[in-house]
Amino acid sequence: MTQRRDSNGETEMANDPQSSPDVQKRRPGRPPTHAETWTKVTVVLFDRQIAYLDGVVQTIRARSGATISRAQLIRALVDAAYEAHIDLSLGGSEAELRAALAARLAAGKGPDLSG
After folding, report:
1. Domain annotation covers residue 112
2. Same-domain check for residues 36 and 18
3. Rounded CA gap, 105 and 103, in Å?
4. Is the same domain home to 10 and 27?
5. pTM score > 0.85 for this model?
6. What is the distance between the alpha carbons of residues 77 and 75, in angstroms, rounded to a whole number?
C-alpha cells in the first residue's frame, strides 16, 4: 500500500477501497510544504550513507544557518541527476551505477557549493 499526498495536503492510500477523500481525516502534525503531489517511500541506507547525509546537513546549517533535511538533500540529488539527463538505466548493478555516477560527477565538476 502506498501513501500519497497531493499539493493540498490531502492523503490518499493507493489500492485501498476506503481511501476516498470523504473517509480520510487530516493527520496531526506540520502542514505539508510541498507544491506537488508526493509519495512516501522507505529506503534502506547504510550507516555510512546516513553519516554522510547528516554531515552535509550539519555543514549547510553551520555555513548558512539554513535547515535542510535528509529527504530534501536526497530529492535534490535525484532532481539533479534528472536535470543533467544522466541515464541511470545503463548500470546493471549498484556498483556499476555508483562508478558511472562518480565518473560523470567528477568529469563535470562545475561550481562547488562547498564555499
Report:
1. no
2. yes
3. 6
4. yes
5. no
6. 5
